[in-house]
Amino acid sequence: MSLSTPLTRVYLGVTVNSKLRCNQHIDQISAVANRMLGFLRRTLYRYLQHLKEKTYKAIVHPKLKHCSSIWDPHQQKYIDKLEMIQRRAA
Questions:
Q1: In this structure, is residue 3 part of a structural domain?
Q2: Per-run averaged pLDDT (10 residues), the chain, 90 residues
Q3: The domain containing residue 35 runs over which residues?
């Protein structure tokens, strides 16, 4: 293994590298949340708005917030990436 490549580990569902950066984790959860959101849109397009909202809050939102106090992004590009998912859901 090269010294320039940080070692990546998963602790309690949070992906952290040896430099304590969570950018890979944010990329992973945003990809999963986007897939879940797409699935919900394809599946629930005929349902009432409040049912769609409850389903989003039950399935997608917890994935975005899991251990967020640990990996809370401080770089604007990661904040924007997560907020884009929230805006798409709205």
A1: no
A2: 70 80 86 93 92 93 84 83 88
A3: 8-89
Q: CA–CA separation, 15 vs 22, rounded Å?
A: 6
Angle made by CA atoms 58, 23, 19, in degrees to the nearest 5: 130
Asked if the structure places residue 2 within a domain, the reply is: no
pTM of the predicted model as reported, rounded to 2 decimal places: 0.78
Strands 14-17 and 8-11: antiparallel
Count of structural domains within the chain = 1
SS3 call for 46: coil
Those residues whose C-beta lies under 8 Å from the C-beta of residue 26, and which sit 6 or more positions away, are: 71, 73, 78, 81, 82
Q: What tokens appear for 76 in the block?
A: 């604007």
